[in-house]
Amino acid sequence: MHNFNLYLPTKLFFGQNRLSELPQVLKPLGSRILITYGGGSIIKSGLLDTVKKSLRDFTLFELSGIEPNPRITSVRDGAAICKKEKIDILLAIGGGSVLDCTKNIACGAYYDGDPWDLVLDTSKITRALPIVDIITLAATGSEYDAGGVITNLETNEKRAIIHSLLSPYASFCDPSLTQSVPAWHTAAGAADIMSHTFEQYFVKDGNILTDGFCEAMLRTVIQMTPVAIKDPNNYEARAQLLMASSFGCCNLLCIGRSASAWPCHAIEHEISAFHDITHGVGLAIITPHWMRYSLNTETAPKFAQYGRNVWNLTGDDTMVIAREAIDRTAQFFTEIGIPSKLSDVGVTDKHFEEMADHIPQCWSPLTDAFVPIDRNGVLEILKNSL
Amino acid sequence: MHNFNLYLPTKLFFGQNRLSELPQVLKPLGSRILITYGGGSIIKSGLLDTVKKSLRDFTLFELSGIEPNPRITSVRDGAAICKKEKIDILLAIGGGSVLDCTKNIACGAYYDGDPWDLVLDTSKITRALPIVDIITLAATGSEYDAGGVITNLETNEKRAIIHSLLSPYASFCDPSLTQSVPAWHTAAGAADIMSHTFEQYFVKDGNILTDGFCEAMLRTVIQMTPVAIKDPNNYEARAQLLMASSFGCCNLLCIGRSASAWPCHAIEHEISAFHDITHGVGLAIITPHWMRYSLNTETAPKFAQYGRNVWNLTGDDTMVIAREAIDRTAQFFTEIGIPSKLSDVGVTDKHFEEMADHIPQCWSPLTDAFVPIDRNGVLEILKNSL
Questions:
Q1: Which residue, of A269, B7, B155, B187, has the fewest CB within 10 Å?
Q2: What is B11-177's CATH number?
Q3: B360 interface with A at CB cutoff 8 Å
Q4: ipTM of the predicted structure?
């Protein structure tokens, strides 16, 4: 087993009707709050209004319009407000994108230069504002992890920023807030949770405990996503997806295991740095092709284990079960309404070469993946996904 | 799904050769350290000496002789040292008993009255010293939870003390330190981990995600314990057991589920309040009898799920698989060397009536257990275990 650290300092407040606890959670942190959010959905649903009414004892500021693939320009705007208005607390309301942007604002608020510097070099992060969030989408797991992903359109870069100071202080996870999420984003969120799990599950050395945790995550998403899509108000399905999402990126799934290269995320980040597609959709399209690229006699037993423990496949032929498990994965994404080709979401092969060149600069080397992926391998996966 | 909170603030430093990081972890917390430990094993192994040498920049005090079922008298001694010597940090070295005692010392240090008051009424806990620990036994999970168990021999009470301030600040979990644990305590520790899992798994409402987490815990312990007993220096087996132990009591396994009455712990605590037996051994003896008491047509599907997912049992007859799963559990405990009867460890039926009377005073009512257990039920389980 590999040595590891585990540190999960975020206080999770999970369940219905928990927002009455928000003021008492915020109170010890200060009085000046910057509320960050995306588009109009939390205005339309009345959530923003409800939150603001409950916080009448605080001084509130707002940053709206945070993008689905959040941009460094929004981070800059937020950091400027924090400095000017002497913000004590960031309150993110929305999905993972809002929260990711807010994490970069949290450290940007204490940094004199451009917040993009902190994305490029996290050793420059020395302090961060406390973050509390109200999560409205089961997907990224940003509510329980120390990372975020920021896009710089000037340089076509989409990069992760990870630092222990960026874990939210508290996350309010109310599954009923996710009941209004449309089928497309429910499916994309499910694919995101599954991809987080795959990235940590398919590594050189696993262990029986966290293999089991990963398999439980996958069974949960596979069982609950079709229910949530068919019956959006099904609280139980929404709750299980939201609970699973929180464990996707918090390191619980990778403890004691080989470091993962997160190859599907590396490739998808390149795609959505050039094309503004939904992250989870990109992941779902790439994943089966990455799996097929990675299947060989050495890796087949792990894919077969996945088939047996997640898809309940039976039989003695390891390679047959491995292939069937990959096919089931592709079929599942199709069944929940995700297109199977990058061309279906407007991606062309125009920037594929650039993307393949770019990965080693933005990401840990994919030579450390479950099966090493060189430049040609990236191009092969991209072309097969087209 | 039930609402829940999850808060896991302890920093886990897991793996070999991590103790060089201890001074830098302790430094921000202060300079005056009370080292707490039990018998002579950490002296004999040289661990205490190694730790003390690495902490030559700190002022060190010691409290030794903490008992396997730690007593309130040790807590009183420790709290007195903390007050007199203005201790900044508690450093517990040992198994769960040492750590449990240390947790009670941590809050006792800031309390003017008798620390037993805090066990009886945790609302009196307002502050606690930071605790760092070096765990030497895979069992209680105290290194990653907010609770401890203390025995008061004057009143024959063994009670849990649980408070968010009692989570360790940091836990050093080096599996190689558990390689010297003899077979008896390895087996008892394994039974403890399994019992923690059973207590949270067998409840009225589970959910697919944490059912899967629990099943992964059980498979891990069942697979790794015989390896660790046969080959005590097997690092991988020791590591998997130690990793599993940390998740047994930290609330990860019970999120979103019905509250558990922890019936086996309630009964075992009564037994070891009267007889100084090894906690995990008492649990292993009681567990199959509690399972048989709890098996009926309503609960059989859950026991069968346990049989299928943990013991790989197959077949269509739910009740047959449920019974087989319970028999396998009993057989497993026997195979790892644990006696199957309370009388084998010196327990008689002398205090059974008192124990049955006592549970409702010390514990949440067992009427909330998976299958409700009244006074007669407790007596039945005790007699069947004799």
A1: B155
A2: 3.40.50.1970
A3: no
A4: 0.96
